[in-house]
Structure formats: C-alpha cells, structure tokens
Protein 1
Amino acid sequence: MQPHPNVRAVQDALTDANARDASGTPSAVRLLPEAVPTAAAAAEALGVDVGQIANSLLFEADGEPLLVLTSGAHRVDAAGLAASIGVTRLRRATPEFVRTHTGQPIGGVAPLGHPRPLRTLVDTALAAYGEIWAAGGVPQAVFPSTYDELLRITAGTPAEVA
C-alpha cells in the first residue's frame, strides 16, 4: 500500500533536509494505528510527555500564513505573539486557509512538506526536551525530531509563544 501523498511529501522533505532524530538516525514518518489529532492523543499513543509534542498551528498574520510550532503543554498567546512579531492581526487560520498553505488537514499539519516554505516560529519551551514528536501530514502520522533539528529543517525562528 502506498503512503498518503502528504506523508510522502513530509518524508521527502525530511530526507531532503537530512533530518535526524535524537539518536542521530534519519527521521522517518511513522503511521500510528489510529489518528492522533491532538497533542494529548499523540502523547498518549507515543508514551511521552504532552510537552514533547510539537503542535503545528497555522495562523493568519496580517493575511499571510504563519506556522507556530508550540509545545503541546501550552496554548499560544495570540495577542502577545502578535505584538512580539509586529503584526496587527493574528488569528487562527480557517481549515481552508490551512489546506491552501500546507496541503494538509488540521490535526495532521507537519512542520514541513508544504507547497512552499512558510514563515515558522518554534516554541522555545520545546528546547527542554531531548526528543520531540511532530505530525507527519495526516492525523495518524508522526515523526521524531529535536528542537535544534526543527529549527534547522523549517528555517524557524525561536520564540516564546505562550
């Protein structure tokens, strides 16, 4: 059975970036038996702390897409984040906006593998964990990474987002 096109796009992006997990092994997308559309569900399925889950949240920042990778243990402070990055309007993206800019569904948005690169902020709270898990393009797909790798493979900017 062929992997979903989104999973293939994420794996191709990981391979192209020479992405590594915490052990130094090439990062590989893993399919879980069931969908894990929330940080709590992903943490439970993987047997890890909810803070180790890198939620990929897409926002509309003055009309442009902004991907925020936040620890599953937080909620983004949209007003504070907007002020810190100098935008006048920051709001959670609609499902249509998410699909247009990522090609992926809410609950499965990966940090990479999108039609074009997105401006990305990476929650500094994720640096506290040696291993981080992120979505792999569909709600039942995940891949392991590290904070430094997420910054590198997304060309992300460290940010306090909570």
Protein 2
Amino acid sequence: MSSIRFLKLSPTVLTALVAGDLDAASTAAGHPLSHYLVEESWLWEIRLDDISRDPEAADWIARAAVAEPEGIVVGHGGFHGPPDGEGVVEVAYSVDPAHRRRGHAKAMLAALLARADEDPRVTAVRASIRPDNAGSRAVIAGFGFRKVGEQWDPEDGLEDVWLRPAA
C-alpha cells in the first residue's frame, strides 16, 4: 500500500481552485497540485463556505492527498467537518481516475483514520456509501466499519451508513 500525506488546502488555495487557476493554487499550497482538484471546484465552494461558518473546520476538511515517495497529488480527502456533538466525524476521500486501482484509497483511509484516532474528541468515524458502490465498500473492508443503517442523500440517493469506533 502506498503512503499518503495530506496537504491542507487554505482558503486562498481553495479560492484559486474554484477560479480554475491551478498555477496560483499550487503556488499558494507550496506544492504542485493537479487538474483533478480544479475539476472538483464544486466541492471547494462548499468547503470555503464550511470554513467561513466554522474556522475550526479547516483542520478537518479540504486536503490534497500526496502519494509518497513520489510526491504527486493523487486525489483529496478529509472529513465533512470537525467532530459533531457525539464525537463522530464522517470520512470523505476521492482518488483521481488517473491514479485509481493502485491502493491510494486504502492508504488515504488509513491516514484519515489515524488522524481521527489521534484526536481525543473523536468517538467514531462514519462512512456513507451507496449500496451499488462495490469499490468504496471494498476500501473500508478490514478497517473495522460495520453497517449501522441507511440514509437518503439528496444527491447520491440511498446510502448505507457505516461506523467504526475510534481506536
């Protein structure tokens, strides 16, 4: 499995990504970013709004996933926000299609779970996955998640809800 390092994306970087300015985003991040991050501008708009409402959210969301030792951005990952009132964080990650099927998603998840486990406020990590998304179900297998229910997402439709206690 590859090793993943997460690079926090500041509001300046996110703003440049939303504007489609990869060069400015890379300069502000201090690391070459990828066109895939520009393609995800819809997400960065949401994350900018999240950070404006709750500055602490910046420590949990909007991170570029850098594969090591290559040092290349292979996607992004983080959480939907800081721990909720019950100490639960929801994991989110996406691998650039050009870098899929190389173990990056599992490496991202492992790094994100380690991040969650190091924060004493986190009691559990949640994952929401469409029932027909075999790839995502395979990624969480072996990480201690168990299905705890279902929910309806306005964009993705029916999702299975998975939970893993914090270590």
